[in-house]
């Protein structure tokens, strides 16, 4: 039984790896489950055993490189004694830096941002993707609505506006770097790029806790 389960997991991983290769090469819309089965060296039946359809496979592939909402909420809670706004800043930095550190993450986000058209067969995957984005924005907005965080925002900046501005910056950096890696160095430039936005949102952002040259976070392997 154990051997059978391990074989099934291996087949599933092989299918996902094959899909990743073909999606990156041909685009999601131009890749069929038949193409993926041939690339993986399995039958179409094996693909359907593990995945209901291409939308399910695509969503599973994306989930491999995302930090679940529950873990994001824990990271942002500040329960480890770190300033919650600093935790938010660190989370955004990790998201970009890990593109450079994790080749699979880079490939998958390149597919999402540059090789995917959300056709009718991918509507469910598109809905799930949008739900994930909205969950992240809501988590950030909830964090910024805390009295201790809200009080630090510039008077004209609402938590809703700040959450969307920060998310837009992160998505923009994801999109730009996966399109052209020469635009900036994720490992050297990301902190400064995120801090530019944070200074525009938070009144006291030049606090000692984030002075340049002091490490403020540890990298985690997977994130939204």
Fill in the keyword field for this structure.
mainly alpha; Arc Repressor Mutant, subunit A; Tetracycline Repressor, domain 2; 2 domains; 11 helices; elongated; disordered C terminus
What does this structure look like?
The chain is built from eleven helices and no strands. With 224 residues, the chain is mainly α. The protein has two domains: 2-51, Arc Repressor Mutant, subunit A (Orthogonal Bundle), CATH 1.10.10.60; 67-210, Orthogonal Bundle (Tetracycline Repressor, domain 2). Helix 6 runs parallel beside helix 10 (159-179). It starts with a helix and ends in a 23-residue tail after the last helix. The model is unreliable at 207-224 (pLDDT under 50).
Fold blueprint:
Layout: H1 2-26, H2 33-40, H3 44-50, H4 54-63, H5 69-76, H6 84-101, H7 103-114, H8 123-144, H9 147-150, H10 159-179, H11 186-201
